[in-house]
Amino acid sequence: MAGHSKWSKIKRQKAAEDKAKGRLFSKLGREIAVAAREGGGDPDFNPRLRTAIDTAKAENMPAANIDRAIRRGTGDLPGASYEEAIYEGYGPGGAALYIECVTDNTNRTVAELRHLIDKAGGNLGTAGSVAWMFERKGQIYVDAARYDEESLLEAVLGAGAEDLETDDGTHVVTTPVQDFHTVQDALHARGIEIQRAELAMIPASTMPVTGGEAGRLVRLVSDIEDHDDVMNLYTNFEVDDAVLEALGTE
After folding, report:
1. Residue 10 predicted with pLDDT over 80
2. What is the pTM of this model?
3. Is the separation of the CB atoms in 71 and 41 below 8 Å?
């Protein structure tokens, strides 16, 4: 599958670290609140909220936290008012950066991201400057240790899945946006548990980044993902295993 790079492994490792620090629950809560505000608090009639709740449950987020996030989104509880923001730019080596944020202060967020990117030798671009390099797709993650590829294929192909790839112990099912929830329903109907599901920006192609630029880029991406307002970061780079190992990311 084009664009499914080694960075996916790093992202899973970082998600585990974020969970240990409590940062992950905060980000999941923001996504739930925004989804509830935009489409209402009933997940049966709000697909985005249903996906956000499923993701939170898969990360063992307490039900009380999920309920509070929904109520904040619908206005039943007081709290910060969050909005979505997308920033685009280039990192070292010319790698594209597509950054999805949920923030209560866009001026603060863009200033802090610009500082991180400029410091690494990249630059923050205008809207649309890198979006054309990506395509929105559904991605559904399933534990490969629990479910074999054949069973998974039987469940998803008829429901509209485009691709299935197994990477580092995880099956990754890719779908068109319009079939994202249909494929999830097909998995649920077969009793297959979903680890995580998201609408992701998949690069049409990837580019190699080497040498010192690779090191600066990996550190920049890590810093961006650590930012409290950043929900998702999508890139189009590939780096050698040796670079990742040297930076302690493997």
Report:
1. no
2. 0.83
3. yes
